[in-house]
Write a structure and sequence with these properties.
Blueprint lengths: L22 H5 L9 E2 L4 E2 L60 E4 L2 E4 L7 E11 L2 E4 L7 E2 L4 E8 L2 E9 L20 E7 L4 H7 L1 H9 L4 E2 L3 E2 L5 H10 L22 H6 L8 H7 L3 E6 L4 H4 L13 E2 L1 H8 L6 H4 L10 H15 L5 E7 L14 H10 L1 H5 L1 E6 L13 H6 L5 E4 L2 H6 L2 H8 L4 E2 H14 L48 E3 L5 H20 L11 E10 L7 E9 L6 E8 L5 E9 L34
Parallel strand pairs: 10-15, 10-16, 12-18, 13-14, 13-15
Antiparallel strand pairs: 1-2, 3-4, 4-7, 5-6, 5-8, 8-9, 11-17, 16-17, 19-20, 20-21, 21-22, 22-23
Helix pairs in contact: 3-11, 4-16
The chain binds zinc ion.
C-alpha cells in the first residue's frame, strides 16, 4: 500500500519556544521584532517576539543587539593584498597533456569497439561491477568488440604483447521505472542535480570559476549564497549533514554558558555499522520514484574513509564506485589503466564524473532523477586546483542546458581549503569555514513562483548544509505538493535546518541559534590583538596543548603519538566584549618540535583566572603523513607519531 506523501507542517510560531535553538535566550530580548538591517558593515537578522504578537506582525522598534547575539557577516575583498600571493590562475595540471591522444576504444550504445578499425594494436576489454564498497567483481577479457552489460568497462590495447593503452569507459544502463512508495500523482516533481566540489569556498569559487558562475547566475538565474557556514571540520560531517541530516560533531556551547549539543552518531556507529537503514536523501528520492546517482572520484568516498563501512546495499541506482575501485585498488585495474588519468591524455577525474552524470541525464529523459557528483581531487590540497576546471563545468552546463532547465541545480562546496599557508590570511581563514553555494531552479518556476525572491532574501543570512538539506526535502516532499507556491516557514520533523525556498523562521540566524560549532563561525566579532608575551598567554597555550593531549589519551593514542608541549603563541586576539564576566580569546599556538603543530582554539578566561578551552581545537597547519600511525579521523590532526617510519597510505578528507 502506498503511504500518503508527507504533510506540510507550517511552523506554529508558538512551537518555536520548544525549539532546540535556544530561543529562550531571545525571549528576554524578544519583546520587539527586529527589522533586519543590511548595510555593508552590519547585518542584523530579524527575530520575532515569542508571545502574544502574531507571526506576521512587525514592530518598527529597532533595538541594537548585544555583541554576542549579532552576526555581522563578512564583507571583504576576495583579492586583497594578503591573499594575492597565494592566487595563481595559471595553474593547470593538464598544461603538458597531449590533446591528440584520443581514446582508441569506444563504448557506444552498450557496445565496445575500436575507434580506428585499421589499428594495429590488439585491444581487449573487461567489465567491473561493484561487489562491495572496496571490491569489484571483474569480468573476463573480451577480445571481440560487441555488447557489454556493465557500466564501467576497462579497455586495454597491446603492441607486441606489451600493454600501451588503458582506459576506463562508463555508460548508464537504464533500469525499469521505479514504483514510488508514496502517492506521487499529485506532486509536481523535478530533477535535482547536485555538483559538490570538495573544499570549494565561496570567495575561492568567485576567483576560480568566473565563467561557470556567470553562466549560472545569468542564463540559469542562479542565486549565490555567500554566507554558508560549514558544520563540521572536513568532508564527512558536512556530507552527513547534507545526506542524513545528522550531526557528527558535538556543538560546544560553553562560550554561552549553555549545555552542549551532542553528536547524533558516535564514531563507532558512523563507521562500523552499515548505513542502509538510515534515511539518506538518496533513500528519500527513491521512495518518491526517482532514479539516483552517486559519483565520487575517490575510492574511499565520504562515508568509507579510512576504514568505515558505508553502505552494504547502496541507495544509488547508478554508482560510480567500480570505476574508482578499478583505478585505485590493488588487483583491480591494470597499471596501464590506472595511469590514464595521470595527465597525458588531457583527462581528469572530474571529466569522468561529468561524463557519467551526462550519461545519466541522457539515459532517463522521462524519469525523475536525483544525482550527486562529489569531486574531491580538484581542490582538496590547493587554492589553485580548481580554476582550470572552470570551462569544464561551464561546458557541461551548456551541453545539458535543456535538461538542467528542468532541474534544480545545486553547485556547492562542503567546506573550504583546509591546508596551506593561505589559511593564515584573513580570506583563507574565512574560506575554510565558508563553502560555496549556488542554486538554480527550474526555468518554469523562475517567473511563476516567489522562490527566487525568497532565496535572494535568505541568501543575505547565515545558512548551513542543514538548510540546504531541508530545501532539497522541500523540493521533494512539500513544495511539490503545492506547485512550488508555498511561502510560509516550514518545520520538518527531525530536521535541524529550514528550507530557504520559502520564508525562514524569523529567529536571528547566528552561530548560537543554528547548528554551527562556534569554532567555525563566520560571523565577525570585533577583536583586538593583545600581547603574547605574558603569563596568561603562555598558560592559554598550555591549556590548548593539554586539551590536545587529553583527546589523544581518551582515544587511546597516547602510546602512538607524542605529548604536545606549547612552544609559542602565534596569535592572540581578545574579543572586544566579555561573556558574563569572562574574557574570550581566539588563539593560534605552535607546539614544540618535532611536531611544530599549529593549533587554533577559542578560550575563555573566567573571572577567577581559570582557563577553559571552548569546543574543538583545530589543526591549523598541514600534518601530511606525520599522523599515519593512527587511523582515527578525529585524532589524526592532534597526533605526531612517535615512530615516523610507520607510514601507511592514509589521506585526510
Ligand atoms: Zn571535503
Amino acid at each position: 500500500m502506498l503511504e500518503t506523501p508527507e504533510q506540510i507542517q507550517h511552523i506554529p510560531w508558538r512551537s518555536i519556544t520548544r525549539k532546540r535553538f535556544f530561543v529562550a535566550f531571545f525571549v528576554v530580548l524578544g519583546l520587539t521584532i527586529l527589522i533586519s538591517v543590511y548595510t555593508p558593515l552590519y547585518y542584523f537578522g530579524s527575530y520575532q517576539q515569542i508571545f502574544q504578537v502574531s507571526f506576521r506582525q512587525k514592530s518598527e522598534n529597532r533595538t541594537k543587539m548585544s555583541y554576542w547575539e549579532q552576526c555581522e557577516l563578512p564583507i571583504y575583498d576576495f583579492y586583497n593584498d594578503e591573499i594575492i600571493p597565494y592566487v595563481n590562475p595559471n595553474v593547470n595540471p593538464l598544461s603538458r597533456c597531449n590533446a591528440s591522444l584520443k581514446p582508441l576504444t569506444t563504448l557506444i550504445n552498450g557496445s565496445w569497439g575500436l575507434k580506428d578499425k585499421k589499428l594495429k594494436l590488439e585491444c581487449r576489454t573487461r567489465c567491473h561491477w561493484r561487489e562491495s564498497e572496496r571490491r569489484n567483481k571483474i569480468g573476463n577479457w573480451s577480445y571481440q568488440p560487441g555488447p557489454v552489460d556493465c557500466e564501467v568497462l576497462e579497455a586495454v590495447c597491446a603492441e607486441n604483447n606489451t600493454d600501451v593503452y588503458g582506459y576506463l569507459h562508463t555508460q548508464i544502463l537504464p533500469t525499469p521505472p521505479r514504483k514510488p512508495k508514496v502517492e506521487t500523482k499529485n506532486l509536481k516533481q523535478y530533477d535535482v542535480t547536485v555538483i559538490l566540489v570538495d573544499s570549494l569556498a565561496y570567495s575561492q569559487a568567485r576567483r576560480s570559476l568566473p565563467r561557470t558562475i556567470s553562466y549560472m547566475t545569468n542564463h540559469m538565474d542562479a542565486v549565490l549564497f555567500p554566507y554558508v557556514n560549514k558544520v563540521g571540520d572536513n568532508s564527512r560531517p558536512n556530507g552527513v549533514a547534507l545526506w542524513f541530516g545528522k550531526l557528527l560533531q558535538k556543538i560546544d556551547r560553553s562560550l554561552f554558558d549553555e549545555e552542549s549539543i551532542m553528536a547524533d552518531w558516535t564514531h563507532n556507529y558512523m563507521c562500523h555499522v552499515f548505513k542502509d537503514n538510515e534515511t539518506s536523501l538518496f533513500h528519500e528520492f527513491q521512495k518518491y520514484g526517482y532514479k539516483t546517482l552517486l559519483a565520487e572520484d575517490w575510492a574511499e568516498g565520504t562515508l568509507n574513509w579510512p576504514n568505515c563501512k558505508g553502505f552494504n546495499k547502496p541507495p544509488f541506482d547508478h554508482y560510480m564506485r567500480p570505476f574508482q575501485n578499478a583505478l585505485e585498488r590493488k588487483n583491480h585495474g591494470l597499471d596501464v589503466t590506472k595511469r590514464h588519468l595521470k595527465g597525458q591524455m588531457c583527462r581528469e577525474h572530474h571529466h569522468t564524473m561529468l561524463d557519467y552524470l551526462g550519461q545519466f541525464l541522457d539515459a532517463y529523459p522521462d524519469q525523475k532523477k536525483f544525482s550527486w557528483v562529489w569531486a574531491i581531487n580538484l581542490g582538496h590540497d590547493t587554492e589553485n586546483g580548481i580554476a582550470h576546471s572552470d570551462n569544464d563545468f561551464y561546458n557541461f552546463m551548456v551541453k545539458h542546458r535543456q535538461q538542467l532547465d528542468n532541474s534544480f541545480v545545486v553547485f556547492v562546496g562542503d567546506h573550504g581549503l583546509r591546508f596551506g599557508g593561505v589559511r593564515k590570511t584573513f580570506v583563507g581563514a574565512l574560506d575554510v569555514n565558508n563553502p560555496f553555494l549556488a542554486i538554480s531552479i527550474p526555468k518554469e518556476l523562475r517567473k511563476t513562483t516567489k522562490i527566487l525572491d525568497h532565496m535572494k532574501e535568505n541568501a543575505k543570512k547565515l545558512q548551513t548544509h542543514f538548510d540546504t538539506r531541508s530545501a532539497i526535502l522541500d523540493i521533494l516532499k512539500f513544495q511539490s505538493a503545492s506547485n512550488f507556491t508555498d511561502t510560509k516557514p516550514l518545520e520538518i520533523p527531525g530536521e535541524r535546518g529550514y528550507s530557504y525556498l520559502r520564508e525562514q523562521p524569523s529567529i536571528i540566524r547566528n552561530c548560537k541559534n543554528t547548528p554551527i560549532p562556534y569554532q567555525y563561525c563566520i560571523c565577525q566579532f570585533n577583536k583586538t590583538t593583545v600581547s603574547t608575551d605574558n603569563k596568561v598567554a603562555l598558560s592559554i597555550g598550555e591549556h590548548i596543548a593539554n586539551s590536545v593531549n587529553e583527546q589523544l589519551k581518551e582515544g587511546n593514542f597516547a602510546e602512538d603519538c607524542i605529548e604536545m608541549k606549547v612552544d609559542r603563541i602565534l596569535s592572540l586576539l581578545k574579543y572586544d566584549q566579555s561573556m558574563n564576566g569572562s574574557d574570550v580569546y581566539s588563539v593560534v599556538a605552535e607546539m614544540k618540535k618535532p611536531s611544530q603543530a599549529d593549533f587554533k582554539a577559542n578560550v575563555k578566561v573566567l573571572p577567577t583566572g581559570k582557563i577553559k578551552v571552548l569546543g574543538m581545537v583545530e589543526r591549523a597547519n598541514s600534518y601530511k603523513r606525520t599522523a599515519d600511525c593512527i587511523a582515527s579521523e578525529h585524532h589524526r590532526p592532534y597526533c605526531y607519531c612517535k615512530n615516523q617510519q610507520s607510514a601507511t597510505t592514509m589521506k585526510s578528507t
